[in-house]
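Forum: Protein Structure Q&A
Topic: Joint prediction for protein chains with partners

I've read a bunch of threads here and the consensus seems to be that you should model interacting components together rather than docking separate models afterwards. I'd like to see that in practice. Below is the full input, 391 residues plus whatever partners are listed. Could one of the regulars post the assembled result?
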Amino acid sequence: MVKLKSNDDKEFEVEEAAVIQSEMIKNMIEDGCATSVIPLPNIDSKTLIKVIEYLNKHINMGKAAETGEEDDLKEFDEQFVNMGWEELFDVIMAANYLNIHELMELCCQSAADRLKNKSVRAVREMLKITNDLTEEEEQEIINDAPWAFEGPEIDDTVN
Amino acid sequence: MEDSILKIPILPVELVTEILSRLPVKTLLTFRSVSKSWLALISSLDFIKNHLRISANNKDYAQHRLLLRYKCILKDCYLRSLLCNSVMEVSRLDCPVTDQHKTFWSVVGSVNGLICLTGGEKALCIWNPSIRKYKTFPDFITDWMVRIVYGFGYDEFNDDYKVVRCAYNYGDRPRFDIKVYSLKDDSWRSIRYRPPNGMRFWGSGNFVNGKVHWANNIGPDRDKGWNIICIN
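Posted by a regular:
Agreed with the consensus. Here's the joint model:
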């Protein structure tokens, strides 16, 4: 078992087979730097619980194919990314910090799927981005590719 | 409302890049107008390269397209539609150049989503259908040439797209002229090459493993055998 400590001082025990999906922790274990608790100063306990949930579910990725659990895993992944932007971004940052490739891929793809075909107005509202372009600059971008701003697929809703 | 503004964590630029790199080009063209930082990011060369890398390595072939030509009409089809759907979804690719200049356009080659077209041998065009932008060249005219063939490729070493143009005749006074165009420098340069007398190139060059290859034969009689020459 490996002990992880979140930045709000909560400790979690995780099986080594699960935790080594994180390249960062795997390297620490291999270098003999993981003898006691591993502090994770960038990750809060709420996010760490989500990450551990993912790691435990994906513990035997290779075996899933043999036992026909692939669909189960796919369903888990779909449920897993069903979270708000705030939480999703926290998990992306944690996955990036811990270097968990599959989790990073899953969450970034989910974020991209949510943004695909969204209108500019909707994106700004969803991600709370302030428009700092002048009206002229904005018009220039539209004039550069007016066809891209048109089409029945463009979605102005913010969910 | 104020709370939710504070709650969305600001992602470092490399993570925003990871997310936006998975979006289709059309969406990205509009997202340039989200904010100044998104405009700078999406327009940057690093982002464009990363987007190309992710699209090219997509395991589901979500962005891979096949280019089809029937007479003068170009069509495209998503590779995924060809592999997964019972009926292939094909859409027409409207090329602004071929619509303007009514000549017989043929495809020289295609690399990384760029398509090189030639019209009636003299006209040349490099076209990016994803952003609907193109570059045309002045017609190539000499008083001596008989045939012109083109090749189109990507020079990984210099990160540059290149067109190879071979103009030649094989009459009584054979002449040969090979020039390479660099998209980065926007200029042509000559290549010194003296082919054996009477050598002919057939069709457009094929870009394989970083080099443009041509099948050619020597002499007017095709049965004498074929060679492959390559220009890198």
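Helices of chain B lie at 2-7, 13-20, 25-31, 36-43, 45-56, 79-84, 96-100.
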